[in-house]
Write a structure and sequence with these properties.
Helices cover 33% and strands 23% of the residues. By secondary structure, it is an alpha+beta fold. It is globular and about 80 Å long. The model has no long low-confidence stretch (mean pLDDT 93). One of its GO terms (molecular function) is ATP binding.
């Protein structure tokens, strides 16, 4: 009878050295997201943030959010591009915080993969760090877990959690919205990170390759679908500091109508003008090649509106000027009227 080899963690598929290498590769990228309030923990077991920064608030409310990027990771894996999916994660987490007016402070991430490839993990985390920098937040920690046997070697998934703070009397939301308010649409950068199960279904049914060069897009389909989620945090915070903003709505799964309705009181509607903007070409590509009905497009995708802002009527022009000066396309999307708490197209 042959002698059995001793079992080891490495034989089970976990490479500790690769994990340590990934940490070294990502250190410089993570450092670029640092805020002054971050305190080093020599052990590395926890991320520390100096809470004395909250003393400048009269009544600080902490806000928290957690999310992932859904099946967009499958497009990144198939296309072999991993440096922007972390930006998507930040957009999904921290732009939810800013809806209530909260300033994002810090974030942590979690990556699960079938096999730790240090360079790939560093690319993913580098994207998270860049997204945090764009949002004005710090990436204070995270975890990379190797799951051999549970995931294929090239598979991974990621999730994150973020914390922010808002002054209690500056909290934005439905109770501030009034009849006559103006709804602004803030442009998305593309599909963002919602609806990718339908995207992948359309690609399969239409036989579209991620390398396909479609004249409507001007670049490979994979590049278009991996365009990172636009991060609105700093723009929305500056807008709320400068003009009278009553509410925001982050347009994710559920589309414009579904998400904007969440930011309305029960007695008011948002009446939207579909002719006020032209959705990016990628949505026409998906609808055409997939024969997707308008109703399904509306409730699945952002259709070019990544964030909506509800502002006082006399603040609309100043708001549009401010956003234009920050390089963020925006327009009058609709108005607030008496109703039953729904957003809908006229």
């Amino acid at each position: 009878m042959s002698e059995r080899r001793a079992s080891t963690y490495e034989a089970a598929g976990v490479d500790i050295a690769a994990g340590e290498r990934a940490v070294e590769l990502m250190k410089d990228k993570v450092a670029r997201s640092r805020r002054p309030e971050v305190v080093d923990d020599a052990s590395g077991f926890a991320g520390l943030f100096d809470a004395s920064a909250l003393l400048r608030y009269r009544r600080p409310l902490l806000a928290t959010s957690t999310d992932g990027v859904g099946t967009k990771v499958m497009i990144a894996q198939q296309y072999g591009k991993h440096d922007t999916i972390g930006i998507d994660l930040v957009g999904m987490v921290l732009d939810d915080l800013v809806v209530c007016g909260a300033e994002p402070l810090f974030m942590t991430d979690y990556i699960a993969c079938g096999k730790v490839v240090p360079e790939r993990v560093a690319e993913i985390v580098g994207g998270v760090a860049e997204g945090c920098r764009l949002a004005g937040a710090a990436l204070v920690g995270g975890e990379t877990a190797e799951h051999p046997g549970a995931m294929d070697a090239d598979e991974y998934d990621l999730a994150g959690a973020g914390t922010g703070v808002v002054e209690a009397d500056a909290l934005l939301g439905p109770d501030r919205v009034r009849a006559g308010d103006v709804v602004l649409g803030l442009a998305s950068s593309g599909v963002h990170s919602n609806g990718y199960s339908l995207v992948r279904h359309v690609l399969r049914e239409a036989g579209l390759s991620l390398d396909a060069e479609l004249p409507e897009l001007g670049r490979p389909l994979g590049e278009e679908l991996l365009e990172p989620t636009r991060i609105y945090s700093l723009d929305c915070l500056e807008l709320a500091r400068s003009v009278e903003v009553h509410a925001y709505a982050h347009i994710t799964g559920g589309g414009v109508e579904g998400n904007l309705s969440r930011s309305l009181p029960s007695g008011l509607d948002a009446v939207l003008d579909r002719s006020s903007w032209t959705p990016p070409a990628i949505f026409e590509v998906l609808a055409g090649h997939g024969r997707v009905a308008q109703e399904d497009m509306d409730r699945t995708f952002n259709l070019g509106v990544g964030m909506a802002a509800v502002v006082a009527p006399d603040a609309a022009d100043a708001a549009l000027r401010l956003l234009a000066g920050r390089g963020l396309p925006a327009w009058v999307l609709g108005e607030i009227v008496e109703g039953t708490g729904q957003a809908h197209y006229r």
